[in-house]
Write a structure and sequence with these properties.
This protein is α/β, with parallel strands linked by helices. The protein has 5 domains: about 110 residues, 3-Layer(aba) Sandwich (Rossmann fold), CATH 3.40.50.620; about 100 residues, Glutamyl-tRNA Synthetase, domain 3, CATH 3.90.800; about 90 residues, Glutamyl-trna Synthetase, Domain 2 (Glutamyl-tRNA Synthetase, domain 2), CATH 1.10.1160; about 50 residues, Orthogonal Bundle (Helicase, Ruva Protein, domain 3); about 90 residues, Arc Repressor Mutant, subunit A, CATH 1.10.10. The chain is built from 19 helices and 14 strands.
Length: about 500
């Protein structure tokens, strides 16, 4: 019998930056196991030594730390089922390779790359299986003595699973239902390589999932073709009773919907496909990340959760706890999910609005520093943020929307000047200057009351005055309520900007 506690794993390969599709897979594992009060395991599948990239494991751990997705066990924190790097588990796998060989469920193959290539040229759509294995160089066609002689001589070999043809292999998938496959179409996959004394993914992940007592394997659709092989391996190893339940998640598709989402799509359309920026030590290339592009981690989580899973309601904004409570593998789609990156920007906008002005002001400080503005999170900054945050999708855009609060305009938008500045604009702004100069209470409410009363008394058109007043203060036709601007920049700065505009624009 399986043990009762839910245990799931996320098992990335450290071969480069973590794709956003991998993040979505990890998120679904996390939501599922937290809903069932289970354990979430991080396992590093580094059996492919040739593709190993230094720094990739640290990148993976840092990415999930930023996103707020925590693991209960892993190489960075230990646990009762370690080691959690496959390269540190070499001695564990060997006994299962021997078991499969002893039970005639696998065999040793010595075929060289050249021999395999010759077979591919000779036989169209060649695969190493029941129909071809007896014509190859392996322990099924060689004597036991010859096999030992070749091993003793240091001849490199692989161990292949021996799949019996004509069997029906059933994969019970939580998302896709019952999937039946004829074993005749499966090839004798390589399970172990003598060259690096490491198993391939197929054997290592089965052994690790069993020994780590994994109850559910929730992974991408690209692994569905391998699932029948994995079911056979569980049977061969005598672990059918404790085989985990499978769930193969839908692919993330290009924004246009045709084909799997790739880094190239992000480069082409201007959005990240990695959680954090990645600096490629080999090529020197820098790939953008969601963190560095200004996305809030909560927004990324919410966005990804709804790519392939539908809660069955109109609700779109979910806290992480609400996602945990609502998530269901049965409600995951079978078909791929279009990666609507514009929706990702919308989520970021929503989460900026949900945060307090103080929180956003703190995030805004580094942007201000980049623009040579030294300040702290005070009432003034929080008020500025509150006035303009509805206009942005990213914190970095706050500068464009609020720079005039910190720096007086050095030029005036030509189109606005042409459209709004009239022959009598200087005269009217001079009169407005006198009205403002006389005020002792420069609060937004009082200034607006006095200025509007003055305009009524002089029968001035509101738009004519306000448009050139805004041009003088901001430099263009943008910004929040004009009297909120005057209150924040103060009386002295307001008068100074009016005087400059009159002087420059005449």
């Amino acid at each position: 019998m399986k043990q009762e506690k839910t245990r799931v794993r996320f098992a990335p390969s450290p071969t480069g930056p973590l794709h956003i599709g991998g993040v979505r897979t990890a998120l679904y594992n996390y939501l599922f196991t937290k809903q069932h009060q289970g354990d979430f395991v991080l396992r590093i599948e580094d059996t492919d030594s040739q593709r190993f990239v230094p720094g990739a494991e640290e990148y993976i751990i840092n990415a999930f730390s930023w996103l707020g997705i925590s693991f209960d066990e892993g190489p960075h924190q230990g646990g009762n089922f370690g080691p959690y790097r496959q390269s540190e588990r070499r001695s564990i796998y060997r006994q299962y390779v021997e078991q499969l060989l002893n039970e005639k469920s696998a065999y040793i193959a010595f075929d060289t790359p050249e021999q395999l290539e010759a077979k591919r040229n000779e036989i169209p759509n060649f695969q190493y299986d029941a129909s071809t294995r007896m014509s190859m160089t392996n322990s099924l066609t060689l004597s036991k003595e010859k096999v030992q002689e070749m091993i003793d001589a240091g001849k490199q070999y692989v161990v292949r699973i021996k799949i019996e043809p004509g069997q029906t292999v059933v994969v019970n998938d939580i998302i896709r239902g019952k999937v039946s496959v004829d074993s005749s179409i499966l090839d004798d996959k390589v399970l172990y390589k003598s060259s690096d004394r490491l198993p391939t993914y197929h054997l290592a992940n089965i052994v690790d999932d069993h020994l780590m007592e994994i109850t559910h394997v929730i992974r991408g659709e690209e692994w569905l073709p391998s699932a029948p092989l994995h079911v056979i391996l569980y049977k061969y190893l005598g672990w059918e009773e404790t085989m985990p339940r499978f769930a193969h998640l839908p692919l993330l598709l290009k924004p246009e919907g045709n084909g799997k989402l790739s880094k190239r799509d992000g480069d082409r359309l201007g959005f990240p496909v990695f959680p954090l920026q990645w600096n490629d030590s080999k090529t020197g290339d820098i790939s953008s990340g969601y963190r560095e592009s200004g996305y809030l981690p909560e927004a990324v989580i919410n966005f990804l959760a709804l790519l392939g899973w539908n809660p069955g309601t109109e609700k779109e904004i979910f806290s992480i706890q609400e996602l945990i409570d609502a998530f269901s593998l049965e409600k995951c789609s079978k078909s791929g999910a279009k990666f609507d990156y514009k929706k990702g920007e919308w989520f970021n906008h929503q989460y900026i609005q949900l945060k307090s002005d103080k929180e956003i002001a703190e995030l805004f400080l580094p942007v201000l520093k980049e623009n040579n503005i030294e300040t702290s999170v005070d009432e003034k900054l929080m008020k500025i943020v509150g006035l303009v945050k509805e206009r942005v999708n990213f914190v970095k855009e706050l500068w464009e929307q609020s720079s005039f609060f910190f720096v007086a305009p050095t030029s005036y938008d030509e189109k606005t000047v042409k459209k709004r500045w009239k022959e009598d604009s200087s005269e009217k702004l001079n009169r407005l200057y006198a009205v403002l100069e006389s005020l002792t209470d420069f609060s937004a409410e009082n200034t607006e009351t006095i200025v509007k009363l003055w305009m009524e008394q002089n029968e001035y058109h509101l738009g004519n005055i306000m448009n050139v007043f805004r041009l003088a203060l901001v430099g263009e036709a943008k910004g929040p309520h004009i009297f909120d601007i005057t209150e924040i920049i103060g009386k002295e700065e307001t008068l100074k900007r009016l005087k400059k505009a009159i002087s420059v624009l005449g």
